[in-house]
Design brief:
The chain has 129 residues and is of the alpha/beta class. The chain has a single domain, classed as Roll (2,3-Dihydroxybiphenyl 1,2-Dioxygenase, domain 1), CATH 3.10.180. Helix content is 16%, strand content 40%. The strands form three sheets. It has a four-stranded mixed β-sheet with strand order 1-4-3-2, covered by helices on one side. A three-stranded mixed β-sheet has the order 5-9-8, covered by helices on one side. The longest helix has 11 residues. The protein starts with 6 loop residues before the first strand and ends in a 5-residue tail after the last strand.
């Protein structure tokens, strides 16, 4: 049996603002925007090429370190910066300290936050041998 985590709820203050950020600035695909009732709206978006999605909901709980994995962290960073996302330079960790520049395998990252303070990490996977 396979157990797949496919949807992660992300709390936001303004669903329309968050939807615009994820769809227009991050390039996530809008899967669903459905108002069930006056109190319930389902907005689901999927990162390009991902099998997992996020679902926006009104709330105060913030998530830290939602992680996306890419083949090319430099290209991902450039794309987000071009879309107006406030993204860090490429960083790596050395002896527990975050430093600017690329690291070794699985040790090159960029960081950003959505307008509600949910934080994201983009990590580069090693190139296939």
């Amino acid at each position: 049996m396979h157990w797949n985590l496919e949807v992660v709820p992300v709390s936001v203050a303004d669903v329309d603002r968050a939807k615009a950020f994820y769809e227009e600035q991050l390039g996530f695909h809008l899967d669903l925007d459905h108002r069930v009732s006056d109190d319930l709206r389902i907005v689901q978006l999927t990162p390009p090429g991902s099998a997992s999605s996020i679902q926006l909901k009104v709330g105060d709980t913030r998530l830290e370190g939602l992680q996306l994995v890419v083949d090319d962290v430099d290209a991902a960073r450039s794309e987000l910066a071009e879309r107006g996302v406030d993204v860090t330079p490429v960083m790596h960790f050395e002896n527990g300290v975050r430093l600017e520049g690329r690291g070794g395998d699985w040790n090159s990252f960029v960081f950003f936050a959505d307008p509600d303070g949910n934080t994201w990490v983009i990590q580069e996977r090693p190139q296939a041998v």
